[in-house]
Specification:
Elements: H1 4-27, H2 32-37, H3 40-90, H4 95-121, H5 127-141, H6 148-176, H7 181-200, H8 206-231, H9 243-246
Helix pairs in contact: 1-8, 3-4, 3-6, 3-7, 3-8, 4-5, 5-6, 7-8
Amino acid sequence: MNWKAVSSQLFTRGALLVVAVSCYGLLRGTPFFEITAADAEGLNTFILLLGSIYAVMYAFVIYVIWGQFTDVEKFVRRECFSLDELLRFSRYMNADSNRAIRRALAEYSQAVLQSEWEALGKRERDPAGENCFMTLMTAVIRAAPANPEEAAIQQRLIDISREAGEHRDERITKSLTRIPPTLMGFVNGLSAALLVLVFVYPFHHPLAGAACFVLVASVLIFGNIVMTDLDNPFNGVYNVSSEPFSRLKP
């Protein structure tokens, strides 16, 4: 858990919320809410309508990004399982081939942990990680079998490395996928509209109005943080763990 990643967002939005509540208190002393009181029924209907649309859109977005988040976790585990299988079968190769494969795999796992994880968090590919994986593939393909048994094992190693490459490609693709800016803007626009409608709604008691506004704003802010946090599996409060790569012992 990396709470520092959202602390600045919480502080900024909390400060804006304090300013909004202060403005709400000032407006309660003006004739503004007498004007909106005449349209309370229309505002109520509009709030229900926008709230329903927001709920549907938010549920859709969370469903999609949660699926992508879990897919990244799934392909991390599958890739590391294939790499572990590669280590296990490489033990039955001759010493030179075994050493070359294990060294290349160690360099690849370190590249993923040290640079690729951070690069994917910035929605960028990591050339160092890609080069290290290509070096690992080359070490498997160029392994020189000393006998027919080792030739069969090498073919198995090639198949395993191909599977690891497929899982890696899927992991990278899912990792670089983000919510389209237009969809994110639409959801945030709906939440802002809801806040405005609750802000101008003519509650009979000022404290009740302020409390409802703070409650709705807090829920929408938290919902936005959850949405943006899950959209990036590598930065934020809840992230995909790199532990499977750390557990690889070449």
